Amino acid sequence: MEITKYPEPHFRNDADGMTLLGARYRDTGELRFPPPEFLQAGEAAEPVSMGASGRLYTFTTVHPAKAAAYALGMVDFDNGLRVFGRLAWPEGSEPAIGDLVHAVAFELPDGTPDYAFAPLKGAAA
Questions:
Q1: Alpha-carbon distance 101 to 82, whole Å?
Q2: For 85-92, which contacts have Cβ atoms below 8 Å and span 24 or more sequence positions?
Q3: What is the number of other CB atoms lying within 10 angstroms of the CB of residue 109?
Q4: For a 10 Å CB count at each end of the chain, is N or C smaller?
Q5: DSSP single-letter state for residue 79
Q6: How many domains does the chain have?
Q7: What is the domain-level CATH number for residue 75?
Q8: Same-domain status, 38 and 75
Q9: Confidence bin at 125 (pLDDT 50/70/90)
């Protein structure tokens, strides 16, 4: 059985900002995020934009013993997918279920580029 690496990233950062990219399987129409890392023989998938924003479905704050607290959340997008990610809220403010969010660039501790969710300015829950 032939296995190939899916060639597309799970996000794009350009002049318009951060866009998350899911994948749609051509034979079934199934949407996935993140996209598959590998495709088996005969499978084909194409990148699909997750859209400009989503709604915060739920969140939690993690309090590690020897590090700063951070928040994680699940965000619902209009295409029906729910995406997990870190929350990047401004200091002194708290996330709330139903907040309108968008993806922003975020760097993992090892320097790897990734995404986080931040509140959409001017949007109320």
A1: 13
A2: 85/115, 85/116, 85/117, 86/114, 86/116, 86/117, 87/56, 87/59, 87/116, 87/117, 87/118, 88/116, 88/117, 88/118, 89/118, 89/119, 90/119
A3: 6
A4: N
A5: T
A6: 2
A7: 2.40.50
A8: no
A9: low
Cβ atoms of 56 and 98 within 8 Å: the answer is yes
**Residue 124 belongs to a domain:** no
* Greater pLDDT, 42 or 93: 93
The mean pLDDT of the chain is: 92
Q: Domain containing 90: what range?
A: 54-119
Q: Do 65 and 98 belong together in one domain?
A: yes
Q: 56: how many CB neighbours lie within 10 A of its CB?
A: 21
96 lies in a domain? yes
**In angstroms, rounded to a whole number, what is the distance separating the alpha carbons of residues 35 and 49?**
11
Classify residue 75 by burial, with Cβ atoms within 10 Å: 0-12, 13-18, 19+. Answer: buried
